[in-house]
Amino acid sequence: MSATFVGMPPFPEAARGALADTQLRHNLAHATATIREKRARVVAEVDEWEELRLAGAAVKDRVLRDLDEQLVRLEESLVARGATVHWARDAAEANRVVVDVARRHGVDEVVKVKSMVTQEIGLNDALAAEGIAAWETDLAELIVQLGEDLPSHILVPAIHRNRAEIREIFRRRMGQVGRPAPDGLTDDPAVLAAAARQHLREKFLRARMAVSGANFAVADTGTLVVVESEGNGRMCLTLPEVLVSVVGIEKVVPTWAELDPLLRLLPRSSTGERMNPYTSTWSGVTPGDGPQEVHVVLLDNGRTRALADDIGRQALRCIRCSACLNVCPVYERVGGHAYGSVYPGPIGAILNPLLKGTGDPQTDSLPYASSLCGACFEACPVRIDIPEVLVHLRSKVVDAHRHDRVPKPEAVAMRSAAWAFGRQRRLRLAERFTGLGVGIGRRIGVARWTSARDLPVAPRESFRAWWRRTDGRLDEAP
């Protein structure tokens, strides 16, 4: 899979199924409300929060304007510090690099830091096809992996699961892939976390290779940055002999100074914390300390396509905080799986079409997975105007179908309206049949529209007829 879960239906169909799952809706409502409340408290502490958002957006925009130069600087800095840099145009090239490194070292398993980009390229599947097991070490990612499930949230991939479900997953699956869950396992969060630590510890100590992503990559020092809450990432980044980091090309930041606003925005917007419990940085190879072979894969996979879109490129500012998901009324009711991608919610509704382009029914449905309420823009720490991009992408979907042999019903309706409004005589003729048209529409044409909206009753008299009868005198109004 790359960018989209294989076999997922278009959003409207997937959303209908999700809405019927009352347990899912309860889990989502509880979790998103909790995260929203935490975020609101810590954001309210920052008097200059709006100025900080503007600063973060400015840093990302500067990078996108000079992305080619910043990436060359990053490569030079990484190589100077002993790292090997690979450029990958797509998922297949990135996966090939990781598989080749694993083969060269004869490993049959790797441990992974939580990484959206490795999910995007389907790395776990690519490794499994070569007989290499990839173990997720983030707690939520572990739950998803053991449950043979798919992630449904950027920050909390197992947000659709409650504690009782997690307990059953641990009891059923841990023993099949490693250390089993302890006897008497309860659904207390601390107990579940302890069971996960025990299960993962043997994998950390045994693995000779790790795979990570990166939240940021500082161009002038060649430093990669990962922020996390549990410490599992720190274990992956320090214990194995070999480390491969797959990094989207938009993650580059020019300098350490420009990293500052982003590190202040991210924890408050994602976990509702003032700072992340673990912020790990590494620059190439340090003799005798940490991995002694470091590879960095700089991934495009549609990002230059998004960069070429004057309106859509702002989506590449995204720092993967998930704030837009937690405030979105659509996401809260249907969850992440309905979006059919590792990038769900409002940001996924724009990022996936930008990375992939139009033409696929599932991807084309995503810009419509929104009420355009604007809550996502208000929450975004780097001021991505998601509603603006959604409308822009909707126009692209419509444009792509303008020359279809069999036009869509809405296209026929719009063309008919344009024809009628194009000449005064046509409009006058159409007005005579308004009542008839509304009546027929109620019966055959607009059932899907009127199931959620009121269809106005046709007036007894048109405006033109009223004007002719009264000469515009309001006292003659019916």
Fold topology:
Blueprint: H1 11-19, H2 22-44, H3 49-65, H4 67-80, E1 84-88, H5 91-104, E2 109-112, H6 116-120, H7 123-129, E3 133-136, H8 139-146, H9 163-177, H10 189-206, E4 209-212, E5 216-218, E6 223-228, H11 232-238, E7 242-248, E8 252-253, H12 256-270, E9 278-282, E10 293-299, H13 303-307, H14 323-327, H15 329-334, H16 345-356, H17 361-365, H18 375-379, H19 386-400, H20 409-421, H21 424-432, H22 434-445, H23 447-450, H24 463-470
Parallel strand pairs: 1-10, 2-3, 2-4, 4-7, 5-8, 7-10
Antiparallel strand pairs: 5-6, 6-9
Helix pairs in contact: 3-12, 9-10, 16-19
Could you characterize the architecture of this molecule?
It is built from 24 helices and 10 strands. It has a 6-stranded parallel sheet with strand order 1-10-7-4-2-3, with helices on both faces. It is globular, with a radius of gyration of 26 Å. It has 478 residues and is an alpha/beta fold. The protein folds into 2 domains: 294 residues, Rossmann fold; 65 residues, no CATH class. The model has no long low-confidence stretch (mean pLDDT 91). Helix 3 crosses helix 12, helix 9 packs parallel to helix 10 and helix 16 packs across helix 19. The longest helix has 23 residues. 53% of the residues lie in helices and 10% in strands.
Question: Which descriptors apply to this entry?
Answer:
478 residues, alpha/beta, Rossmann fold, 2 domains, six-stranded parallel sheet, four-stranded mixed sheet, 24 helices, iron-sulfur, LutB/LldF, metal-binding, repeat, FTHF_cligase-like_sf
- Report the average pLDDT across residues: 91
Q: Please provide the count of β strands.
A: 10
- Beta content comes to 5-15%
Compute the separation of the termini in Å.
Answer: 63 Å
Reported for the largest beta sheet, the result is: 6 strands, parallel
Instruction: Specify the CATH homologous superfamily of the largest domain.
Output: NagB/RpiA/CoA transferase-like
